[in-house]
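Researcher: I'm preparing a figure for a lab meeting and need a structural model of a single chain. I don't have an experimental structure, so a prediction will have to do for now. The sequence is pasted below. Please return the structure as tokens so I can convert it later.
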Amino acid sequence: MKFILPGAVFVLMMSVGMSLRHDKMIAAFRRMTWSAWMRLLLATFIVPPAIALLLPHIFPLTLAEMAGLFMVGVAPGAPLMTRNIAKKGFDMHLAAGYQLWGALLIPVMIPLVVFATGKLYDRDIWIPPRVLLTEIAEKQFLPLLLGMALAYLLPVIAAKLQPAMTVIGNVVLTVAIVLFLFKMGPVALKALTPWLPVAALVLAVGSVLAIRFLLRADVVTDRTLAICNANRHVGLALLLSGQYLHAKAALPAVAAYALVAPFVMGATSKWFHRGEKAAAPAAA
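Model: Understood. Here is the structure written out token by token.
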């Protein structure tokens, strides 16, 4: 069981790497100003966990459910490039660059945010940065580089494999979450708060709006990163909540977000395109 989730992440990251060109990714980075990067830091690492901490004051969540949603809020950069990002009006290379930027900051930001939050509850929670660095190096950077190398050396083969690998990775990831929930058993699932999916929905929408209100960049950048910010790293959240928060019951909260987030990202994409179509006749 413990190899299913990492395997799905590895396949997805290779798929992402196969579709990237480093020159376009660097060009997308250069569009961003230093001020925009600072606002993006707030929208990515500070606002989502802050929303998660407010959710128990709005919905009757258990401590384990709050812990799961908090770790989802803390962990950005899921290895999932949705078709929404590849559509017209979105920048896939900016999305990948954002994911790499977030991964580089994870060993710094997650320990600090988790430690500061623990102090609010009179707890000392320290996640060693080296653990996070090893995690992202093995499960994100290595497969990403392998995918980029394959695309460079064997472009025809990579182009054929990339769509299938994306589908396989997403299917395996979904199956892993279902298996984890099945392993918990019906008794534990019946104890879940009915408001949990709603709380997960609020967190996903809040992550989108954090980019929209804080970043204020060009249209393509805002659209791309708004969807990316809702795409939190549920695999990393699940790992950290179990190891460092000792909240194995946080799995349903992480799973709830994993199931809700794709719908939010899809709805956000449609909303952007609808606004674009409505603006086109007016401009004409």
